[in-house]
Fold this sequence. Notes:
It comes from Desertifilum tharense IPPAS B-1220. InterPro entries: CRR42-like. This is DUF3148 domain-containing protein. It holds the Pfam family CRR42-like. By secondary structure, this protein is an all-beta fold. The protein has one domain (about 10-70). It has no helices and 7 strands. It has strands at about 10-15, 20, 30, 40-45, 50-55, 60, 65-70. The chain has a 7-stranded antiparallel beta sheet, with no helix packed on it. β5 (about 50-55) and β6 form a beta hairpin. It is globular.
Amino acid sequence: MAQELQIGDRVRLIVVPPYVKTAEPKPMLRPPNVVQLGEEGTILERRPGGWGVRFTKGAFLLDEQCLEKVD
Length: 71
């Protein structure tokens, strides 16, 4: 079941990675507790390392496998 993610889509975090990378010009690694399992965000951009997603506590770069599209 391949999902087609696009910029502007609402997504839900379904897997919390061991660390998260900020989606900034100079990315930083952050502990995984800055985002919560089930938290919803909006896709801002596509990057080689994944999707830039805006959550409550900031924008983070996440792999597509960690996300599911919210209808």
